Amino acid sequence: MARIAAESGGADGGPIAAVRCSSEVMSSPVESSIIVAPPGISNRRAGSLAGMGGSALSETCHRPAGAPVHDLIREPAPVIWIRPDHVGYLGPALRIDPHSTSVACLAVGLDAPFVFRAKETGAVITHSAFAPARVLHEVEASEGRMLCLLIDAASTRTARCRVRMRRTIGPFGFDHDNERELVAAATDRVLDAGRVLHGAGGAEPGGLDARIAAALELIRADPASEASATETAAALGLSRAHFLRLFAEHTGTSFRRYRQWARMLHVAEGISAGHDLTRCAVDAGFSSSSHLSEIFHRMFGLSATALAGTGVRLDIDMSRRPPSRSPETTGLPASAMERRSATLRTESAEDGSAPLR
Hints:
single chain; Jelly Rolls; globular
């Protein structure tokens, strides 16, 4: 059975939703927690990773206008929801190989503690762990379910989440001070993405440097672009060295790794639209589907095939972009930003640069 989500009126994404669509993919009813559709309809899409082998996803569909919001499905499968400022996973705890994410990650054991490992920490048994971007770590599978939040570098909630960890070992944090609320939000009958995100990092305080906000927007707008850090810095009136220092300081990640992150989000959007994996990979800026698979494993610690094997569902709504400064506050006129962005895309297309690795 296909799924498609309805729009929430709540902030930061609102409840994750699921309703019936016309499809013969699933034939038997299932029992588990209910994911509730709130009133209203949007362009949010849902689908499955079952087609990651390369074919288009037959399970992806659009919810027809006027579809009854009371037509709910009991959803046993794990879910990944993708929003402009974060990505969440809720499902069974998985064996995660050593990896380093492109953005910061918070993991919470909902039913039991789990084992977190890193060179700096050794084995740590915990109910919640915070890992900054680009630092190698792994998570051993535990009993029960797990919540994982990957917070976009454009969000200043990353720093707020870090300081809410009760103890630190090296760059990692453990024992979130709002752990009970996070567990309650993730196990509630209504899975509210905004509530989960707020529980992790509180309200979005703002304060991101306007020039870095502009750079992040350029990357998100065209993740396949091969514009170099030097070119992007020049577009913002900065030297390359100053730009890269400022970028790392304000985002907690690197220019290169954030572009990989933006490309992964672009792939997910393509999959939800029903495109095959090869097209999604190339459209996002990867050289091939195998290149995408390699980066996926490095970033998340498991293969896309292993993740798809869990029956995970996708719920994607990128309609709410992270807050960004107006062109006037970046020190670069709107027309100049638009021209420069177009120039960088054109140069990338003409010079045939190899995709970022």
